[in-house]
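Hi C.,

You asked whether I'd gotten around to modeling the 213-residue construct. I have! Everything is below, sequence then structure, no commentary in between.
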Amino acid sequence: MNGIKKNFSVLIAFATLTALNAFAGISGTSGDVHILAIPPTTVMPNAFENDHKIWIFNEQMNHLLGSSVDVNITAPGYYNSNGSLTHGTIASGQRVNVYYMHFDPKRSKRRSGTVTFDEAIIGVIVTKGDLTASNFLGAGGTIYPSNVNNMGLEMGSDRVRVSPDMKTLTVDWQASSPGDRIRVMTVVPEPASMIALGTGLVSLFGMRRRSKK
């Protein structure tokens, strides 16, 4: 009996962890956008170059904001000028998953693609000043540029689209040195929702076991 309880507890923990990972992740990418499984040691200009790939990597999972963060895109739409940006602030106390997108080709290149997240985007940072100010959200061990001219997007030659459900980001970037960079934050579901999902997975597992018997 104790063994059954132990196995059940392990299964609960595994299902909940699975739910957490699912909520924290990326559903998929297309085009020139590629997932980098491990954050690089640097995203400084000319130090992590690639002519063909726009990299995206996870910086923080389930991070509780200790201070507010200024962002430049907060709503669905097509952004192709500074005037089209919808500036806003994500308040402290919000839990977020944080991602960094980086494109630094050796020669001037245009690349495009999409990334779809499991959860809704609540903010995208594209300007030099706000990228620098939000570097405290960066991955540990990664070196980031600060206040480098053109380190963000040059709206006009660089374009971004956010889908109506706020889960898919489409990018179309023209870059040379020092490259294009943005930071994306998605919501983290309430713990109760994740536990409920984990419990639901356990129930489904139990039903399958009984049906086999």
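If it helps when you're writing up: The CA atoms of residues 16 and 196 lie 8 Å apart.

Thanks,
B.
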